[in-house]
Amino acid sequence: MSLVPVWAVPLAAQPREVRQGGFKFINPLLECEDFDPAGNVFLQNFKYKVQEFVDRKTALKSVIHISVYFRDMNNGPTFGINADEGFVPASLLKVPLMMAYFKVAEEDPDVLDQKILYKGPQKKYDIEQYVSPGQTLKKGRSYSVEDLITRMIVYSDNQAAFLVYRKSLLDRLFTDLGMVAPGSRKPRGSITVKEYSSFFRILFNSTYLNRYFSERALSQLSKSEFKEGLLGGVPQDIMVAHKFGERVDKDEKQLHDCGIVYHPRRPYLLCVMTRGDDFEELEGVIRGISALVYQEVDVQYRDSPPSGPGTPSGNPREP
User: Fold this and answer.
1) Structure confidence by residue, pLDDT tens digits, 33-45
2) Is 141 exposed, middle or buried (0-12, 13-18, 19+ CB in 10 A)?
3) Whole-angstrom distance, CA of residue 217 vs CA of residue 264
4) 230 Cβ neighbours under 8 A, 6+ residues apart
5) Structural domain harbouring 50
6) What is the C-alpha separation between 84 and 192, in angstroms, rounded?
7) What is the pLDDT of residues 81-112, one digit of tens each?
8) Does 43 map to a domain?
9) How many domains does the chain have?
């Protein structure tokens, strides 16, 4: 018996989003019209294919749980798998921390030039990382807030994040966005794939930060050193603005990767959070889901014209 897609979303029946364009990473939302009479593209549901992949992987003893959230960034068709499961965000919280600083910088640009002295590793944050930072801070050297933000995003440096961490800034951001801070949740510190994905939607649509800082934030995220997750599942010339997070709790490991894949015809958001006992296996899960989703989007939009921001073949990402 063949599996039939559960739904198909006719994009012509979706409210048509009017966007500004002209940027590399963001696509500012200007207004939302009732319908697009010229639209004639159907996004066939491939959730069942991703579900089958998830089921196969969770049948393995090394993979305990997988959650997935997908969203078309132009017109919004979306699906989730185990999307309400809570995970420890770990380094994923460096994204809202960056956003919080950029929000302050809109009014006070000098905040990014402030210098902070690095006195040495803080024991609380000196945690062995599966994915080690490509560059680390030097004891006795002062760094600008802007440099530290770059390091915590591109290299996922925990020490850099510690130096710029300000609970009050994060609390303000979560309040502004109408979200509950992870530290106030039960189980404590948890967040879901759908909740976390909202940060990337907010940046892409430029609905919280202004256009300059939204573009700047996604540009930083596109330089992430971690290439074994979402990046590993897409062609070399496709830009991905993303952030990964890892966590070890006794014998259980968590690995997540969330971001925007700038498919030249259809940019989309993909967030995968995993729990298991082997980091390499979890990397493979994220990479496999990323490859499956990219292939589905690519096939369905192969004959469509380029749409939205992104990286055409003339602007490949760094190898």
Assistant:
1) 433 433 334 456 8
2) exposed
3) 20
4) 240, 242, 257, 258, 259, 261, 270, 272, 286, 287, 290
5) 8-23+30-300
6) 6
7) 999 888 888 889 999 999 999 999 999 999 99
8) yes
9) 1
